[in-house]
């Protein structure tokens, strides 16, 4: 406790005012944005955390951020060190070799200079840096230099993550364009295969808009004029297919979703918070990484769940006449521990455990 009190002094707390300056605000903002975006890209898009490479990559990103901030704050708060007020050399005869500072009322020690910003004589002064809102000198020269070294290295790592993320997105985008699909249509096709396999049907789903040629598919999107072909309402289809094959498959999937959905009753109120702290640590840290909404729940309501994760479910609230006219449906994510399966469904159905993609 004594050691802690010796560090946390009023003089040290006064140094916090150095943060209230455009230099530290911009520097810390850039560090926060780059670090956060690199970590988000690393987790969501580029390298899965359950792999060894993904774990090492994520730990390295955190390590860069910690080391950069550690050296940055050291350079800012430890400071360069100042010539004591009223200082003079031990041997009074040496004063003839020194400059005298009228502001500090002291002699300037060798290699020290007076800083007009700090209003003090700085030991081994290099320069006054606006990014740390302090001087670079004797005590913080090493920390400041390490900050300048680590920041570009961390930026290079983050840039690599950004480039790989964009490359991955571009690769996936071109792959579906060359098959004349969209991301949603690729997902529909994947679910069509799952539906046929689940029910063991004697069907084969053929995507109707794939022209069978990558060049023809490419020209459906990219043209010399910049205007895509067609009117966006009717599309050329491959031989043997129907104009509405895809929409027919969508209707089948929606009917199948209604059949396989599970009815739940709300047993605990839920405010609709994205990461609720009062629903458990696991629920808090496993909140779905999606822009889909969360829905507010009240005890006694009923939900028709269509898909889910281990600690979260997604579904439609079963509306009654008390809801505002014009509201056709309320759907979104909600914590699994806020609901219980209705007895009538518990005997025949299984709760949705997950899906291949969250959108």
UniProtKB/TrEMBL annotation:
<comment type="similarity">
    <text>Belongs to the DHHC palmitoyltransferase family.</text>
</comment>
<protein>
    <recommendedName>
        <fullName>Palmitoyltransferase</fullName>
        <ecNumber>2.3.1.225</ecNumber>
    </recommendedName>
</protein>
<dbReference type="InterPro" id="IPR001594">
    <property type="entry name" value="Palmitoyltrfase_DHHC"/>
</dbReference>
<feature type="transmembrane region" description="Helical">
    <location>
        <begin position="147"/>
        <end position="171"/>
    </location>
</feature>
<feature type="transmembrane region" description="Helical">
    <location>
        <begin position="25"/>
        <end position="47"/>
    </location>
</feature>
<keyword id="KW-0728">SH3 domain</keyword>
<keyword id="KW-0472">Membrane</keyword>
<dbReference type="InterPro" id="IPR001452">
    <property type="entry name" value="SH3_domain"/>
</dbReference>
<dbReference type="InterPro" id="IPR039859">
    <property type="entry name" value="PFA4/ZDH16/20/ERF2-like"/>
</dbReference>
<keyword id="KW-0012">Acyltransferase</keyword>
<keyword id="KW-1133">Transmembrane helix</keyword>
<feature type="transmembrane region" description="Helical">
    <location>
        <begin position="54"/>
        <end position="73"/>
    </location>
</feature>
<keyword id="KW-0812">Transmembrane</keyword>
<keyword id="KW-0808">Transferase</keyword>
<feature type="domain" description="SH3">
    <location>
        <begin position="259"/>
        <end position="344"/>
    </location>
</feature>
<dbReference type="Pfam" id="PF01529">
    <property type="entry name" value="DHHC"/>
</dbReference>
<dbReference type="Pfam" id="PF07653">
    <property type="entry name" value="SH3_2"/>
</dbReference>
């Amino acid at each position: 406790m004594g050691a802690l009190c010796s560090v946390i002094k009023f003089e040290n707390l006064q140094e916090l005012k150095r943060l209230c300056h455009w230099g530290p605000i911009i520097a810390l903002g850039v560090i926060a944005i780059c670090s956060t975006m690199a970590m988000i890209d690393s987790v969501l898009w580029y390298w899965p955390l359950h792999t060894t490479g993904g774990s090492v990559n994520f730990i390295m990103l955190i390590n860069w951020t910690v080391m950069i901030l550690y050296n940055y704050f050291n350079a800012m708060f430890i400071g360069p060190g100042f010539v004591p007020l009223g200082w003079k050399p031990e041997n009074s005869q040496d004063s003839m070799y020194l400059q005298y500072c009228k502001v500090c009322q002291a002699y300037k020690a060798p290699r020290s200079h007076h800083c007009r910003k700090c209003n003090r004589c700085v030991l081994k002064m290099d320069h006054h840096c606006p990014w740390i809102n302090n001087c670079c000198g004797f005590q913080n020269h090493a920390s400041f230099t390490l900050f300048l070294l680590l920041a570009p290295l961390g930026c290079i790592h983050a840039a690599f993550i950004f480039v790989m993320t964009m490359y991955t997105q571009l690769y996936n985008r071109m792959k579906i364009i060359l098959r004349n699909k969209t991301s949603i249509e690729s997902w529909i096709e994947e679910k069509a295969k799952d539906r046929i396999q689940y029910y063991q049907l004697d069907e084969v789903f053929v995507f109707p808009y794939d022209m069978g040629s990558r060049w023809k598919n490419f020209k459906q999107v990219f043209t010399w004029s910049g205007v895509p072909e067609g009117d966006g309402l009717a599309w050329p289809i491959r031989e043997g297919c129907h104009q509405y094959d895809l929409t027919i498959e969508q209707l089948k999937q929606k009917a199948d979703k209604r059949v396989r959905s599970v009815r739940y009753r709300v047993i605990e109120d839920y405010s609709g918070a994205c990461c609720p702290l009062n629903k458990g640590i696991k629920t808090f840290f496993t909140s779905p990484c999606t822009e889909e909404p969360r829905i507010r729940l009240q005890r006694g309501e009923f939900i028709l769940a269509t898909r889910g994760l281990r600690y979260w479910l997604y579904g439609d609230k079963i509306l009654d006449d008390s809801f505002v006219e014009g509201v056709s449906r309320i759907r979104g994510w909600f914590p699994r521990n806020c609901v219980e399966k209705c007895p009538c469904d518990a005997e025949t159905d299984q709760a949705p455990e997950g899906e291949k993609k969250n959108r």
